[in-house]
Model the fold of this input.
Amino acid sequence: MNKRQQPPQKQKHQPGREHEMTPLPDYEPKTRGSGRLKNKVVLITGGDSGIGRAVAVAMAREGADVAFGYLDEKKDAAETIKLVEEEDRKALSLAGDIGDEKFCKKLIDATVKKFGRLDILVNNAAEQHEVDSPEELTEKQIDRTFRTNIYSFFFMVKHALPHMKKGASIINTASITAYKGHKTLLDYSATKGAIVTFTRSLSENLLEREIRVNAVAPGPIWTPLIPASFSASKTAKHGASAPMERAGQPNEVAPAYVFLASSEASYITGQVIHVNGGTIVNG
Done:
């Protein structure tokens, strides 16, 4: 079987631009909406592209208004706004660095000001940088990766909680690397392991408030982060090592977030859903 899943390609910009990818990721929800998130408000970090965009559109189709943060990918962000509005829902986007606590508070305040509430928080944005050996890791890179990938989760939760009521939901994006590791993504994998522990600990902390906290751990998904992180040859083979021998699409991950945000998951907290093309992991 040909293991090549997509044409070789490389982007120099982190976390990547969706409109430059070939083929474009599939964000379109696979099902019609049924009002599972009717009149809810969701805030997504990294909602301009990839998994974040697919979650935004899927939740909008289920009746939620959508706010999202993004770094600087204006064209992708504008497209996501359009897609949410095509689902007859309201949308808000704000550009900035989630590694900065002040921006996280600004994003939450803007969401509450526009929509009057906050029901679902999706901590999703991330960055990753390959290194061949631990000696290549710099303090600057480690700090940057941790600020984006896990510090931001603390910042977002801290400032979101005053606006979240009984029945609200927090969903964190972990990764298969939290369970399997990754030889060239040392700092990234470490942050994803931290996200799993953060999810479990926060779920216990918020039990009395009746706010559920869960995570999704994607495997190899076709998102802008892939050509922005790996060489063209590695990008071409992305997903080939999964049991299904292909990369997953963002719209194959998004339903897990919708489920965890909905009342159907009312007895689920502190858990991780694995969407990885068949790799068996524990936890």
